[in-house]
Specification:
The chain has about 140 residues and is of the alpha+beta class. It is about 40% helix and about 25% strand. The chain is built from six helices and six strands; from the N terminus they run αββββαβαβααα. The radius of gyration is 16 Å and the shape is globular. It starts with a helix and ends in a 6-residue tail after the last helix.
């Protein structure tokens, strides 16, 4: 897995966008980070899982996933060694990390759904409601 492939997978999730956090790339849904890329070095990433999800991914793919050191790791922050990660291992981890922080209206979006469909629908509803044509 390359950093570019990780970026493509992360940005392929509904309403995901890329930002910057402490000098390296992060991936967010809304204002909440679900993954980072390039920390502590360019060949690494981090996904924000629950402790239970973390233990499952570490057990299934020990070469690719490991807990981050300290309290962050105890809360589910999980390091990803990109060289050892495959799309088969990483895609579900990214989806779970995304779902952990996504708003409820997006978290119910199935994988593979159009990227911004729920956001566009919400904006369309706001425009029609603002014109006095509320379609509830």
């Amino acid at each position: 897995m390359t950093p570019a492939a990780f970026r493509r997978l992360a940005l392929g999730l509904p309403a995901a966008c890329e930002g910057s956090h402490m000098g390296h790339a992060d991936f967010r849904v809304g204002k909440r980070i679900f993954a980072t890329l390039g920390h502590p070095s360019p060949g690494w990433a981090m996904v924000k899982l629950t402790p239970l999800q973390q233990s499952q991914f570490v057990a299934a793919y020990p070469a690719a996933f490991a807990p981050v050191g300290g309290a962050w790791g105890l809360r589910g922050a999980t390091r990803v060694e990109l060289r050892a990660a495959t799309p088969t291992a990483l895609r579900p981890a990214l989806f779970e990390a995304w779902r952990n922080v996504a708003p409820a209206r997006l978290a119910s979006t199935p994988p593979g759904a159009p990227r911004h469909a729920p956001v566009r629908a919400a904006l369309r509803w706001r425009r029609t409601a603002a014109r006095g044509r509320d379609r509830r």
